[in-house]
Amino acid sequence: MTFTPAITGTGVFTPELSISNAELVVAFNAYADRFNAENADAIAAGEIEAKAHSSEEFILKASGIERRYVMDKDGILDPAVMHPVLRQRSDDEPSIMAEMGVDAANKALAAAGKTAADVGAVICAASNLERAYPAVAIEIQELLGVQGFAFDMNVACSSATFGIQAAADMVRSGSIKSALVVNPEICSAHLEWRDRDCHFIFGDVATATLIERAEDATGLYFEIRSTRCATEFSNNIRNNNGYLRRSRPAGMVDRRDMQFMQNGRKVFKEVLPMVSSHIAGHMGDEGVTAGDLKRLWLHQANKSMNDFIGKKVLGRDPAPGEQPNILQDYANTSSAGSIIAFSQNSDDMQSGDLGIICSFGAGYSVGSVIVERRG
């Protein structure tokens, strides 16, 4: 016997602190001036390049981002630090990612009219996890009081949709009745804030999605009609940090490749056709046409990328609201972006309306979820 999986609730934890482009530019330019002054002789000798200034106009044109939420603001904006500074917690305290995830999870449960007693599994799916073990998912499970099991997974920016597919498959098969897919993302900690090409990209957030049997829904819900995931190896988005770092010569030095790195031009050129083709193939196999779609909730990395994909999928420029963007306020929040867009831009959909949640990123990876409003 198989069951129909459904999204019955979502939740978003948004940090209290935010950084505007104007604030970010002031901090970066102060850092650049400091770097150039400290390395004046080497710059004059042509041994290293001077740091160029950033600008609000450059950031907005390159990304469409206007601001971002962060877990720490002071460290990021300090030209002598340029990264978040988070309090060291004892092993007896909830970890910061679990704390964020629990907030989002409780909101998802409340939206669905359910409690932790109704949950059979917790999947913590994120691009970065603060430790190798024990799993952050199991900590979230404990803090919520969920019975059953939990596990972590990482498919970078596609983690949420891959997690939804895993949860939907388990619900469909009957192995569990429901699952919470939780996406705590502290992207500010893996961003290189000293790199002009990317210092504006990321923000922090946590999202949660409750997937359960449609028959158990207590209100309006989105039936998960179909899911599809794909991966293709690429080095164009990469972070070389990891537990083997100290075992390698010069592994502990301040190396650029220990933070987020990407070849932006190649990513744009290679990922967009992959994502567009993936969505088209998924729609075609499910008998869904562009005219059937009411909404596209895409990964929130770059406005130009989303506009391109939206036009490819729909065969025209998306009308206002058809392909909602939230990155102007949240920036790129990795796996959480498409879920924020879905959570904040789905209440107006009517019974029978179709939409696609799609995320894509490092791997390369792409995941799509076709949903239909019910009730």
Briefly, what is this?
This protein is an alpha+beta fold and 375 residues long. Helices cover 33% and strands 23% of the residues.
Radius of gyration: 21 Å
- Tell me the helix content: 25-40%
The description of the largest β-sheet is: 9 strands, mixed
Assembly state (oligomeric): single chain
C-alpha end-to-end distance: 23 Å
Q: If you average the pLDDT, what whole number results?
A: 96
Task: Tell me how many strands there are.
Answer: 13
**Order of helix and strand elements from N to C terminus:** EEHHHEHHEHEHEEEEEHEHHHEE
* Strand content bin: 15-25%
Shape: globular
State the strand order across the main sheet: 5-4-6-7-1-8-13-12-11
Poorly predicted runs are none
Structural class: alpha+beta
Number of helices: 11
Write the layout of secondary structure elements.
Elements (H helix, E strand, L loop, with lengths): L4 E9 L3 E4 H18 L1 H5 L11 H8 L3 E4 L3 H4 L18 H17 L8 E5 L10 H9 L4 E5 L5 H15 L4 E9 L17 E10 L7 E11 L5 E2 L22 E2 L1 H22 L7 E6 L4 H12 L12 H4 L6 H8 L9 E8 L3 E10 L1
Parallel strand pairs: 4-5, 4-6, 11-12
Antiparallel strand pairs: 1-7, 1-8, 2-3, 6-7, 8-13, 9-10, 12-13
Helix pairs in contact: 5-6, 8-9
